[in-house]
Amino acid sequence: MTTEEATETAEYAPEAPARLPWAKHAPEVYKAMLRLETAARQGLDPKLYELVKIRASQINHCAFCLDMHTKDALAAGESVERIVQLGAWEESRHFYTRKELAAIELTEAVTVLTDGFVPDEVYEHAAEHFEEAELAQLIAAITTINAWNRFGVTTRMTPGHYTPGQHS
């Protein structure tokens, strides 16, 4: 049996339905989140924006958002290699600019909040690479994806059906 034949006969796990179509039941919250999303992305490089979204979604285990943002990143011209390496960015630093690394590091600090705060050195490193207005937008983007991740993970939104730009 060839690899192709084995793949064709492989039985995949069934797709689990979402727990709750939260946007349907809380439409005003969903609309407000979309407005927040639109406002948060202003002034940020689209590729950087998607890297931040992907990294937070990896940390939060949000499969729906990973599906969405990897597809959007590819559509924005991001490389598969950089997307794949993002999960191990500390060992793959040479794939990213210093500015991107500062954004990724800040994304992790804001997303995890292990010590209950964002360390001064992480914030200062980001502030070295971003002007204040852009840094404020970056923090907004990180905060927004974390909120989306919590909706996605809690309601178990199903990945795999998103097409790039679908929610733009």
Number of strands: 0
What gyration radius follows from the Cα positions, in whole Å? 17 Å
Work out the helicity level. 55-70%
Beginning-to-end CA distance, first to last residue: 44 Å
Given helix and strand content, the structural type is mainly alpha
H and E order? HHHHHHHHH
Strand content range: under 5%
The number of helical segments is 9
pLDDT average, as an integer? 94
- Overall 3D form: globular
- In the predicted model, the low-confidence regions spanning at least 5 consecutive residues are none
Major sheet summary line:
none
Q: Care to describe what's here?
A:
It is a single chain. This protein has 168 residues and is an all-alpha fold. The chain is built from 9 helices and no strands. Helix 4 packs parallel to helix 9. It is globular, with a radius of gyration of 17 Å.
